[in-house]
Design a protein that fits this description.
Order of helices and strands: HHHEHEEEHEH
Distance between the termini: 38 Å
Strand order of the largest sheet: 2-3-4
Helix content: 25-40%
Radius of gyration: 20 Å
Structural class: alpha+beta
Largest sheet: 3 strands, antiparallel
Strand content: 5-15%
Length: 151
Protein backbone atom coordinates (compact mmCIF):
# COMPACT_ATOMS: atom_id res chain seq x y z
CA UNK A 1 0.00 0.00 0.00
CA UNK A 2 1.31 3.43 -0.91
CA UNK A 3 2.25 5.69 1.96
CA UNK A 4 1.63 9.42 1.43
CA UNK A 5 4.61 11.75 1.80
CA UNK A 6 4.16 14.36 4.51
CA UNK A 7 5.73 17.84 4.48
CA UNK A 8 8.34 16.92 7.10
CA UNK A 9 9.59 13.97 5.05
CA UNK A 10 9.73 16.03 1.87
CA UNK A 11 11.69 18.77 3.64
CA UNK A 12 14.08 16.15 5.06
CA UNK A 13 14.63 14.71 1.57
CA UNK A 14 15.37 18.21 0.19
CA UNK A 15 17.96 18.87 2.89
CA UNK A 16 19.56 15.43 2.75
CA UNK A 17 19.72 15.46 -1.04
CA UNK A 18 21.27 18.95 -1.02
CA UNK A 19 23.91 17.70 1.44
CA UNK A 20 24.84 14.95 -1.02
CA UNK A 21 23.30 11.97 0.76
CA UNK A 22 22.59 9.02 -1.46
CA UNK A 23 18.99 7.97 -2.08
CA UNK A 24 19.66 4.60 -0.47
CA UNK A 25 20.78 6.24 2.77
CA UNK A 26 17.84 8.68 2.77
CA UNK A 27 15.45 5.75 2.28
CA UNK A 28 17.04 3.87 5.17
CA UNK A 29 16.75 6.89 7.46
CA UNK A 30 13.08 7.43 6.54
CA UNK A 31 12.11 3.76 6.60
CA UNK A 32 11.11 3.88 2.94
CA UNK A 33 12.26 2.04 -0.15
CA UNK A 34 14.98 3.50 -2.32
CA UNK A 35 12.55 3.47 -5.24
CA UNK A 36 9.93 5.51 -3.39
CA UNK A 37 12.55 8.09 -2.34
CA UNK A 38 13.79 8.33 -5.93
CA UNK A 39 10.26 8.85 -7.20
CA UNK A 40 9.60 11.50 -4.53
CA UNK A 41 12.78 13.35 -5.51
CA UNK A 42 11.53 13.45 -9.09
CA UNK A 43 7.88 14.18 -8.25
CA UNK A 44 8.66 17.10 -5.95
CA UNK A 45 11.32 18.47 -8.35
CA UNK A 46 14.17 18.05 -5.88
CA UNK A 47 16.47 16.27 -8.32
CA UNK A 48 19.38 18.26 -9.71
CA UNK A 49 22.45 17.22 -11.62
CA UNK A 50 24.83 15.78 -9.04
CA UNK A 51 28.52 15.11 -9.22
CA UNK A 52 28.68 11.62 -7.73
CA UNK A 53 32.45 11.54 -7.95
CA UNK A 54 32.69 13.93 -4.98
CA UNK A 55 30.61 11.74 -2.70
CA UNK A 56 32.51 9.46 -0.40
CA UNK A 57 31.18 6.04 0.50
CA UNK A 58 28.08 6.26 2.67
CA UNK A 59 26.94 3.24 4.59
CA UNK A 60 23.57 2.30 6.02
CA UNK A 61 25.16 0.31 8.83
CA UNK A 62 24.28 1.14 12.44
CA UNK A 63 27.93 1.76 13.27
CA UNK A 64 28.07 4.74 10.94
CA UNK A 65 24.59 6.08 11.75
CA UNK A 66 25.94 8.55 14.33
CA UNK A 67 28.72 9.90 12.12
CA UNK A 68 28.22 12.49 9.43
CA UNK A 69 30.15 11.87 6.24
CA UNK A 70 31.47 14.98 4.53
CA UNK A 71 32.09 14.64 0.81
CA UNK A 72 35.48 15.66 -0.44
CA UNK A 73 35.68 17.63 -3.65
CA UNK A 74 37.44 15.86 -6.47
CA UNK A 75 38.87 18.01 -9.23
CA UNK A 76 38.05 16.81 -12.72
CA UNK A 77 41.31 15.59 -14.28
CA UNK A 78 42.69 17.50 -17.24
CA UNK A 79 44.73 14.50 -18.38
CA UNK A 80 43.78 10.88 -19.07
CA UNK A 81 45.55 7.92 -17.49
CA UNK A 82 47.97 7.74 -20.41
CA UNK A 83 48.88 11.43 -20.27
CA UNK A 84 46.81 12.85 -23.13
CA UNK A 85 44.69 15.93 -22.57
CA UNK A 86 41.01 15.46 -21.67
CA UNK A 87 38.63 17.13 -24.07
CA UNK A 88 35.72 17.74 -21.64
CA UNK A 89 32.67 18.84 -23.56
CA UNK A 90 28.88 18.89 -23.54
CA UNK A 91 26.51 16.32 -24.99
CA UNK A 92 25.25 18.99 -27.40
CA UNK A 93 28.72 19.40 -28.87
CA UNK A 94 29.11 15.62 -29.35
CA UNK A 95 25.66 15.39 -30.99
CA UNK A 96 26.44 18.31 -33.29
CA UNK A 97 29.84 16.80 -34.21
CA UNK A 98 28.41 13.36 -35.01
CA UNK A 99 25.55 14.95 -36.97
CA UNK A 100 28.08 16.76 -39.16
CA UNK A 101 30.41 13.78 -39.59
CA UNK A 102 28.02 10.84 -40.02
CA UNK A 103 25.07 10.47 -42.38
CA UNK A 104 23.98 7.39 -40.40
CA UNK A 105 23.15 9.46 -37.29
CA UNK A 106 19.92 11.32 -36.60
CA UNK A 107 17.89 12.62 -33.69
CA UNK A 108 14.16 11.99 -33.52
CA UNK A 109 11.76 13.06 -30.82
CA UNK A 110 9.32 10.88 -28.92
CA UNK A 111 7.04 12.68 -26.44
CA UNK A 112 9.32 15.74 -26.67
CA UNK A 113 12.30 13.61 -25.60
CA UNK A 114 15.27 13.15 -27.95
CA UNK A 115 15.88 9.64 -29.26
CA UNK A 116 19.28 8.96 -30.85
CA UNK A 117 19.24 6.82 -34.00
CA UNK A 118 22.43 5.34 -35.44
CA UNK A 119 22.31 3.01 -38.44
CA UNK A 120 18.49 2.93 -38.11
CA UNK A 121 18.67 1.65 -34.51
CA UNK A 122 17.89 3.48 -31.30
CA UNK A 123 21.07 3.93 -29.24
CA UNK A 124 22.11 5.45 -25.91
CA UNK A 125 24.14 8.61 -25.41
CA UNK A 126 27.10 6.37 -24.51
CA UNK A 127 26.91 4.72 -27.95
CA UNK A 128 26.70 8.17 -29.59
CA UNK A 129 29.85 9.17 -27.70
CA UNK A 130 31.63 5.98 -28.81
CA UNK A 131 30.78 6.59 -32.46
CA UNK A 132 31.88 10.23 -32.31
CA UNK A 133 35.14 9.21 -30.63
CA UNK A 134 35.73 6.51 -33.24
CA UNK A 135 35.61 9.20 -35.94
CA UNK A 136 37.86 11.52 -33.90
CA UNK A 137 40.45 8.75 -33.47
CA UNK A 138 40.43 8.10 -37.23
CA UNK A 139 41.12 11.83 -37.72
CA UNK A 140 43.89 11.80 -35.06
CA UNK A 141 41.93 14.20 -32.84
CA UNK A 142 41.56 13.88 -29.06
CA UNK A 143 38.43 12.04 -27.98
CA UNK A 144 35.47 13.69 -26.27
CA UNK A 145 34.88 13.17 -22.57
CA UNK A 146 31.37 13.73 -21.17
CA UNK A 147 30.74 14.18 -17.46
CA UNK A 148 27.44 12.33 -17.72
CA UNK A 149 28.92 9.35 -19.57
CA UNK A 150 32.72 9.14 -19.29
CA UNK A 151 33.16 9.15 -15.50
Amino acid sequence: MKKVWNATEIEYIKEAYAQGKREKLIAHELGRTESSVSKAITRYKIRTKRDYSILSRQSTSKASAGRKVKPTKVVRPQMTFNGTACNWTSADEVLRYLGEKSSQFEIRYRNFTPVYIFQNREVSLAKVLMEANKIRLEENQPIFHLEEVTE
